[in-house]
Amino acid sequence: MENTRFKNPLVRWIDKRLPIFSMMHHEYVEYPMPKNCNYMWSFGAQSMISLVLMILTGIFLAMHYSPNTEDAFNSVERIMRDVNYGWLLRYLHANGASFFFIVTYIHIFRTLYYGSYKSPREVTWLLGVIILVLMMATAFMGYVLPWGQMSFWGATVITNLFSAFPIIGDHIVTWLWGGFAVDNPTLNRFFALHYLLPFVIVGALFLHLAAVHVHGSSNPVGIDTQGPQDSLPFHPYFTIKDTLASCFFLLFFAVFVFFMPNVLGHPDNYLPANPLVTPAHIVPEWYFLPFYAILRAIPNKLGGVLGMFGAIAVLAVLPWLDTSKVRSARYRPVFKWFFWALVICVFVLGYVGGQPAEGIWIPIGQAATAWYFAHFLIILPLLGLLERPRPLPASIGESVLHGGGTLLGSNPRGPER
């Protein structure tokens, strides 16, 4: 029986033999979305736009970049000055990395607020954490490629951290460097991996989306859909919403690209790398600063490295640390306060990470680090046992139309009239 869903005969012919169009129609047109999803659910789409932009601009930049310590800095300058619209490609790529992290961090905090990581979406969350780690690795290697002062010294400091591990640490550092110092082999392998990893991210992203579609998207109420009355087709309702959000995102992004393209970069990285001149204050890009602050907050080198990696690892086990049966912070008044305290804590860590490791910034960084780990390892498990959530609505439709609710664990009867 021939599929009459598509009017174009060529599409019907292809779809009969390779049903890719039917799959896309099912997953991105008919796919039921909870009707109460707001614009906070649009940041996943913005992250996909950012990833596509980074890959496309990166491919064109790679055509003109020279991964050699003698030529790398000058090749970037040539892209900016001599390649047609090279300045635009470079600014789109450099600022695109920052905006990729902005929308990803907002996406993560939205997931934390609405409890979207809880059962049955643990695998979706784990894949999201893997994507975050891949993003960080890709961004770090990309930051080295311009071969400016901060690129060189940032690579030297960060790769040297692995030497803190007993026995194998020095071997890991030598393997990362491709020699006994950050030099040409290091730049070559970082360039190769920086080019490769975005395509690995694409694969992980497809798995992430597939996992989302298994149990459906989460929603602000945090309860599952109970039928067609609780959902709407993805198209046109959410495609329009995502398109509008994308327009605002791209407009905000364009302001940075065209009017302040260097505001998110470090001035020292506009100087050629010089192994004989150490910058006064070595700092990574802004999206690494909270983790950099955790690294410096622990006096012991090995402890600092474990703390930095542990800050990401604790996110991977989050679904099993949060013992509350209620997902959304809308119905968890105590959790809501602790959530905003965590947001403030992360901003404090980011600010401390950009300051010199001296004076008042040391105890502030240590206190913020302690609160960060306490939130996940102590506060969340205890809140699930001690907090009394507010009444949940009987259904998504009820929460949208009436705002009514029933006590957690009771038999839903709908709102009283």
From TrEMBL:
GO terms for cellular component: respiratory chain complex III. GO terms for biological process: respiratory electron transport chain. Residues 224-394 form the Cytochrome b/b6 C-terminal region profile domain. Its cofactor is heme b; heme. Residues 10-221 form the Cytochrome b/b6 N-terminal region profile domain. The chain crosses the membrane at residues 43-65, 91-113, 125-145, 151-178, 190-211, 243-264, 304-322, 334-354, 360-386. SUPFAM superfamilies: a domain/subunit of cytochrome bc1 complex (Ubiquinol-cytochrome c reductase), Transmembrane di-heme cytochromes. InterPro entries: Cyt_b/b6_C (IPR005798), Cyt_b/b6_C_sf (IPR036150), Cyt_b/b6_N (IPR005797), Cytb/b6-like_sf (IPR027387), Cytochrome_b (IPR030689), Cytochrome_b_C_euk/bac (IPR048260), Cytochrome_b_N_euk/bac (IPR048259), Di-haem_cyt_TM (IPR016174). A ubiquinone binds at residue 213. Heme b b566 binds at residues 107, 208. Keywords: Electron transport, Heme, Iron, Membrane, Metal-binding, Respiratory chain, Transmembrane, Transmembrane helix, Transport. The keyword Flavoprotein does not apply. It is a multi-pass membrane protein. It holds the Pfam family Cytochrom_B_C. Component of the ubiquinol-cytochrome c reductase complex (complex III or cytochrome b-c1 complex), which is a respiratory chain that generates an electrochemical potential coupled to ATP synthesis. Belongs to the cytochrome b family. This is Cytochrome b.
